[in-house]
Amino acid sequence: MLFLQSEQTGQQTDQSDRRKVKRKTKSKAMKMERKDMTEQDSQKSHGRADVSPGSAPKVRKAVVMAAGKGTRMLPLTESMPKHLIKVAGKPFLEHILESLEQAGITEVCLIIGYKAEMIQDFISKSRFRSMVSFAFQEVPKGTGHALMMARDFVGESQFIALGGDNLWSPRDLRRLSVFDPFVYIAAKKVADPSKFGLLHVRQQPGDEEVLLLDSIEEKPSSFDASGEHLINTGLYKFTPEVFSRLESLKPSPRGELELTDAISALARQNLVRVLELKDYWLDLGSLEDIPKVEAFLASLGSNSGNSGG
User: Is 173 exposed, middle or buried (0-12, 13-18, 19+ CB in 10 A)?
Assistant: First the structure.
């Protein structure tokens, strides 16, 4: 599935980002982390922890959930995890890691399960091996349970979290990667939200440009067909508080721990902001999505002189 917002602007921005790709070393990552911690302490001491989206990124850690089999990708996923399916000349996971790198992320935890050894082998032979660690979800018990597997990796850090079968632009990843007390959820406007999580929002008092999340309605059956609606794209920025919320969750009717239930609990405390994407959102959810996503990524690559996208 392919969702574009301001397509030309998004392509130009992404092309520029892709020309700037450089391999991060561990020493550079440590230097950036020390700098961020100093800035964060300064913000706290001056009461300025609220950093507006669009400012320089402060979050350096990311959690990528890549444990699922991908039944809608059969028969391809009989022999490999869907995250390693080649799209525009390289495994889809490589596109994700490149975007995270370009967005300023220096540490990534991959939550793996199905054919985990294949993903580990791919990373061990890639240039991303120094920035990637692993956590295991041996039994699929929901997105909330998957995120809990990364608790040791996260520690006391703020972090972004995303699905391993979706891709966002480096610019939107940077906009979301801000250090402040809030959770952020990346949203996209669509005419038909019936297959997604519909976001019910309100304006923050005193700042009409900030949207606060009221609730998430999964796959709504009724909605205003004459307008556009904000939906959840599955990209988030979290504070460590999300783990205490996940611990208190009860399984959903389908027997899983739902990450959106924890987000809804935080929303009731006015702690969740909604940030609308400016660029693209690519969802590699089914076999039918492969040629669409591949064509878009190939066009980005050819325009920037990098056929790999």
Answer: buried
